[in-house]
């Protein structure tokens, strides 16, 4: 997978370089440059053919659509990864806090219910079994 | 009618404050919780006995090994990636991610119709075979000699390269502009000459200082012959 992606990257870079060279030739066109330009245009077609061939070799890569928004706005897509990881960590911490709070609440509730309804809670414990150990 | 009478009798013994309202638990209906199990015995001494577990005691949710209580970042082995991104400040521009890409890539894509969204929304026409251009088709690319019009000339120049070219321009300015080049060279020459002159002066001063130091050392050695500074390693071995 990595090799095919690298191959595609190389081909794309070569294609971009070819376009850049065409831009230079066209930028200040000299009459003797027509042959070179023609060759470059043919190389452009060949480059597209190569990229098209690689289509089948590149496996399906899932990319979040939001990344495209970052790129379209001229922003570094690594910022998206950074934001995602920070959000995931924050959410993870939030959920862990909730779980811990509920566990504490349940433990406290069991103690209090045991004081008030000892028989019922004994039954409850008999049915439910012992609590899961706290992580 | 018989059934209805029976129910009425039972209802007398049914709890007044039923958690399910005034409905009798005998009447068959779907028990969403599956926990309401009651034995009702009829006859001379009708009674209602709760044989099942507590009311409203639902089945606990299935235990999942992976919950938000665990550090998911560590679980998926992404700590290194996280520290990589959170530790250093990631540069904002797209050009810092793709430094080798020519052109102005930091501008919004919709401005020059180069957005990736547009590729998704309006996919390009594909499926046709790509063939090299024929000589007739290439004739369409025959260009007139000369530079491009001003408005197209500086389109798609990378900002980073501009920054670099500024430095290059400085060099070019020194090397390329002939009138200023001479004066600059002359200035540089004067500078170096002055520096050399200064260096010479310093050099002479150093020589004088060294001489004075040597004289001082000689004097000290005369006064204290045991001083190690006055002896070479060979002298030490001999002595």
TrEMBL record, chain A:
InterPro entries given in the database record:
Mediator_Med10
Name where it's found: Nucleus
- Biological process GO terms, please? regulation of transcription by RNA polymerase II
Keyword Transcription regulation, does the record have it? yes
Keyword Metal-binding among UniProt keywords: no
Question: Transmembrane segments in this chain: where?
Answer: none
Which molecular-function annotations from GO does this UniProt entry contain?
A: transcription coregulator activity
User: Pfam families under this entry?
Assistant: Med10 (PF09748)
Keywords attached to this Swiss-Prot or TrEMBL record, sorted alphabetically, are: Activator, Nucleus, Transcription, Transcription regulation
Cellular component (GO) terms are: mediator complex
List the PANTHER family hit by this protein, alphabetically: MEDIATOR OF RNA POLYMERASE II TRANSCRIPTION SUBUNIT 10
Q: Quote the function comment for this protein.
A: Component of the Mediator complex, a coactivator involved in the regulated transcription of nearly all RNA polymerase II-dependent genes. Mediator functions as a bridge to convey information from gene-specific regulatory proteins to the basal RNA polymerase II transcription machinery. Mediator is recruited to promoters by direct interactions with regulatory proteins and serves as a scaffold for the assembly of a functional preinitiation complex with RNA polymerase II and the general transcription factors.
Per UniProt, subunit arrangement is: Component of the Mediator complex.
Family per similarity comment: Belongs to the Mediator complex subunit 10 family.
Protein name in the entry: Mediator of RNA polymerase II transcription subunit 10
The record lists the organism as Gryllus longicercus
UniProtKB/TrEMBL annotation, chain B:
Q: Which GO terms describe its cellular component?
A: mediator complex
Where is the major localization of this protein?
A: nucleus
- What Pfam families does the database record attribute to this sequence? Med19
Kindly list the biological process annotations in GO that this record carries: positive regulation of transcription by RNA polymerase II
Compartments (UniProt record): Nucleus
Q: Which UniProt keywords apply?
A: Activator, Nucleus, Transcription, Transcription regulation
Annotated region Disordered: the residues are 1-43, 160-239
Q: Name one GO molecular function term.
A: transcription coregulator activity
Compositional bias (Polar residues) at which positions? 27-43
Which residue ranges have biased composition labelled Basic residues? 160-174, 209-222
Biased composition regions of type Basic and acidic residues, renumbered to the chain: 1-11
Record flagged with keyword Transcription regulation: yes
- Domain of life, source organism: Eukaryota
Q: How does it assemble?
A: Component of the Mediator complex.
State the family named in the UniProt similarity comment for this chain. Belongs to the Mediator complex subunit 19 family.
Give a short account of what the protein does: Component of the Mediator complex, a coactivator involved in the regulated transcription of nearly all RNA polymerase II-dependent genes. Mediator functions as a bridge to convey information from gene-specific regulatory proteins to the basal RNA polymerase II transcription machinery. Mediator is recruited to promoters by direct interactions with regulatory proteins and serves as a scaffold for the assembly of a functional preinitiation complex with RNA polymerase II and the general transcription factors.
Stated name of the protein: Mediator of RNA polymerase II transcription subunit 19
Question: Could you tell me which species this protein originates from?
Answer: Gryllus longicercus
Question: What gene does this protein come from?
Answer: MED19
